[in-house]
Amino acid sequence: MTSAPDTSSDVAQAATDSSHGVLPDTVAHAAATPDTALPFAELGLKPDEYERIVALLGRRPTAAELAMYSVMWSEHCSYKSSKVHLRQFGDKTTEEMRKHLLVGIGENAGVVDIGDGWAVTFKVESHNHPSFVEPYQGAATGVGGIVRDIISMGARPVAVMDQLRFGAVDHPDTARVVHGVVAGVGGYGNSLGLPNIGGELVFDSAYQGNPLVNALCVGVLRHEDIHLANASGVGNKVVLFGARTGGDGIGGASILASETFEDGVPSKRPSVQVGDPFMEKVLIECCLELYAARVVEGIQDLGAAGISCATSELASNGEGGMHVDLENVLLRDPSLTAGEILMSESQERMMAVVTPAKLEEFLAITARWDVETAVIGEVTGTGRLTIDHHGHRIVDVDPRTVAHEGPVYDRPYARPAWMDGLQADTVSGPEGAARYPRPASGQELRETLLRLVASPNLASKSWVTDQYDRFVQGNTAMAQPDDGGVIRVDEESGLGVALATDANGRYAKLDPYLGAQLALAEAYRNVATVGARPLAVTDCLNFGSPEDPDSMWQLVRAIEGLADACAELGVPVTGGNVSLYNGTGEPGTIDSSIHPTPVVGVLGVLDDVARATPSGWRVPGQAIYLLGTTRGELDGSAWADVVHNQLGGLPPRVDLANERTLAAILVNASRDGLVDAAHDLSEGGLAQGLVEACLRYGTGARVWLDELCARDEITPFEALFAVPRTEEVRFVDMCTARGVAHQRIGVTDDTTDADHHDASGAAAGPALEVQDLFTLGLDELAQAHRDTLPRLFA
Amino acid sequence: MTAVAPEATGSTTLQGARVGVITFPGTLDDRDAARAVRLAGGTAVPLWHADADLHEVDAVVLPGGFSYGDYLRAGAISRFAPVMGELVEAAQGGLPVLGICNGFQVLTEAHLLPGSMIKNDHRTFLCREQVLVVENAETAWTRDYNQGERITIPLKNQDGQYVADEHTLDELEGEGRVVFRYEGWNPNGSRRDIAGITNAAGNVVGLMPHPEHAVEVGFGPDGEAGPRTGTDGLRFFSSVLTTLLG
What we know:
- The complex is a heterodimer of chains A (794) and B (246).
- Chain A has 794 residues and is α+β, with helices and mostly antiparallel strands.
- Chain A is 37% helix and 21% strand.
- In chain A, strands 8-10-7-11-9-12-13 form a seven-stranded mixed beta sheet, with helices on both faces. In chain A, strands 21-23-20-24-22-25-26 form a seven-stranded mixed beta sheet, with helices on both faces. A six-stranded mixed beta sheet of chain A has the order 1-2-3-6-4-5.
- In chain A, a hairpin with a 2-residue loop joins β12 (385-389) and β13.
């Protein structure tokens, strides 16, 4: 397959091709031919960026150098539009917040100390654009890429999660993307032996034509096993191992990840990489054996921008320079030009720095795993990255200018003109109630609840998650549909971690600052709900075009909101990813881009995963408490979406101080055995929370707070409890002492009440009864909840 | 150093029972299988696909995964691994061998068990907590179960539809060699709801579901005692230890 972007310039073609007897575009040749035009625009570079490269080099770049700069200076690799704002994550992180951080932002992934000499590394990353073009491979290689980031830190990957956003369920193209993405996430992750412990699944027409496929991986290592991506020690060997380099994914980083799809632009389909999970599984085990043998000085995975990225980052992070002989790269396609070899994004490759003394041992281990390995260069003391191809010097650059000193833009941004109108269209309060009718009678509430429970975004996700292996490795203590995924780290002590991710694009659209904070608050609460102490954050910021001041404003506000909230909750951002240019609409309009979607992942630690609190109740007769206060906040709610197809108003208030207190109560209550179940209330509000807690183990409930049901909606910090009655007083005391509002709203109940009847009139099984309003049999609820996704997609 | 007949190991203590776990490239559940052997009280011995030596183990587990990516046909390449030569010989001599999921596929490719696995009838990967009926509680790997008992262990595969010709199926049923059947809904279209089978001697057992994922409270399927308390898989491993100890 051919995959280069359309570099039709004869000069570039001929210049990079030394195999056809044409003189390669060497450094000397470039110096001697200053006026030669290069296709920088086709490679995604702006004229001023090209001028900057010329200034840095003091001559025009060679074709190979241009290939490197173009991919490394792309939005995807350089963060050129977001960098000035992302600094806040570091600037707002205090020393106190850093105390558990072993490796912070800037490496392949952050590393967090969880105690007893154990560390955990985790990161969430996007693969959005490739997943629209080729859903299966896009999603598969998205998983593969984030897993390699985790391996390259020296860790064994132990779990994955996926955060998915698709277009409307009834759009003709949605099923294609859903099937491909879900099969891709599953096909790759399952084949790696990584349990999938949770994620998100959202359908919204805002993502039509621009789905979001984010993937998170978490890995475990001992403190002393941390590896970093740097090339040091003159004379050390640079080794490329794993899959061979082919023509897939060329220019993907510069073009595919950075521009929108427009009619009339040549198809970029071949730019999507193709994954081989078998190779990656072998690579995981091979790398772990290399680490155990202590034969790796520095290591970097090959992802976006392939060899260009790995060589320049390793060299830039190291002390000296690096020299590479490019003809030593093992090729799948011998016709690749030097520029293509440098840009190729072939998957399942790693680059390591190895001392000459340990090279033999290194090669013996890769041979044992049948992993092809080539020594392609060595660390030098020149401070330059030089690359030769068949003896011709085609690259001679300062690696820092490629990897770390690319362009930085402080792009103009402004609050969109349409924000006022959007925020004015509220469904809350008397004004909203007048315009958007609400269910009033018990029967109407019952029907509304059933409709919400069966709506695609609130329906059971098991059609998707049953396609993922959650058991492999034998350490999964909790997975979807519980509030967080929980993985055991230490088999002796039970020490482990909980992970949850969240993003509500509807809230972020209404207010990106609050939307980002709400995402953090919910992920933080989810982790605390299972009983884990929140420790650290990773984020994947999915936004529209940075060249559109509206989208840029959303990005800036979301970063500010997230950084402020992290500081207030005391959890640092350890790493993440920014995905821009997500949008297909007309700039300046309200629909120009996707809902701003700041996916936030929170990692927490549990001293013993056996104590993790499940999300559903099993034992009848337990008291149900609602923690937190419920306000009449309906803007951005699932109810407004499902019933009125409406988005407007202001998102729920965020009270981070209260979130912190609530988390402390949840963690302590779990540790002291005061709660048997806890479930976070968010989308769909109390009603959805009750339904999910009932359906988890098929135990019903009687609830008697009709005023809460009438207000049935989201509050930012409410959680739901089933407390053994004997512990009631202690539990209540704890809430009272900490000033957290709490109210007993019901009791768990699995009696088959003769008053409940199914459609045929027979006495039904356990039910959810909201006293004086309605009763819903769990069978009916379960059917409504579980049938939706299979009906749409199976 | 090959097959260890039950009577030969009568004096072995529990920990002295050495159960080999083979790792092929792409094997995923090898560490899980080794943990299951340990939890049952035995000693797990890692075996490497390229090492044509069983290292005097008393039994062997071929764990699940996607050996060689399942790119040709599940188990079709692993069947030619150097370790398989001695394994086939030992199994024919009575060595207890258990193939789980991909391991089951390898055993059918190696002709230690009849039939074959094709893609699930619904064509997707499926992970679920699966109820099985124990139909033969007399094999080396099932003697700690009761005939007709219902157990719940995880099922997770893409190519789990067991197929064989009618004659073979009749023979398997006639000789009591169907060891497990799926209870209720058949999750992959397997012929006659077959989830696992044995050879005529009862020392080689293969099944698609995963007993090694239901051996430890807190990390298995839901059970009577609460979420993730199911440990119905543990008795596979205690069974073989019982077998080895005579």
